[in-house]
Amino acid sequence: MACRNSAPWRLASALVEKRPENAEGPSPEERREAAERIDEARAGNERLVASLTRLWDGVVEASTQANIDDEHDPEGATVAFERAQLRDALKQARSDLEDLGRAAERLRAGEYWVCERCGGSIPGARLAARPTTARCIDCAGKPL
Fold first, then answer.
1. Does the entry feature the keyword Zinc-finger, yes or no (predicted)?
2. Which of 19, 76, 89, 122 has its CA 20 to 30 A from that of 53?
3. For the CA atoms of 110, 25, 128, 120, what is the dihedral angle to 10 degrees?
4. How far apart are CA 62 and CA 49, in angstroms?
5. DSSP state of 19
6. What does the pLDDT average to over 8-24?
7. At residue 37, does pLDDT exceed 70?
8. SS3 for 76?
């Protein structure tokens, strides 16, 4: 895993452009804050993926060294359940990391504050709470 300061995806330092006084949209400071939120979430998620991967590798290694028969072992169902829980947590963490990558791309492209469905604006408070969201509140509540 790359060091956070040297990571190629680091956005905060790349968003220092000037904004004309009459321009609409987020200010450079708002863009920088959004980039920092995405960077922080991404770094935390990378640590989570690494930790879950180590746990998964340990479970796999332990299961190869033990003669576990999940079907007939009274503890087998617990082992299988824990393995499934860990697998699903790792899958979700990787998916979240991909979502953060898409959010970073939307920010770079200037589309971060624009709803992908209706083209309306996404409030900054919503993006602060859910940095990966790509829809406004109205569209988020509608079925795909």
1. yes
2. 76
3. -80
4. 20
5. -
6. 46
7. yes
8. helix
Arithmetic mean of pLDDT over the chain: 82
Distance CA 133, CA 67 (A): 45
Q: Report the candidate in 6, 27, 19 with the shortest Cα–Cα distance to residue 113.
A: 27
pLDDT digits (tens, 9 = 90+) for 78-111: 777 888 999 999 999 999 999 999 999 999 999 9
**Torsion angle in degrees (nearest 10) through CA of 41, 42, 48, 49:** 150
- 114 forms beta bridges with 121
- CA 133, 108, 94, 52 torsion-angle sign: negative
Q: Is the pLDDT of residue 40 over 90?
A: yes
Would the pLDDT of 71 be above 60? Answer: no
Give the CA-trace dihedral at 19, 24, 30, 31, to 10 degrees.
Answer: -70
Euclidean distance between the first and the last CA atom of the chain, given in angstroms as a whole number: 35
Mean pLDDT in residue range 4-31: 56
Q: How far apart are CA 139 and CA 9, in angstroms?
A: 28
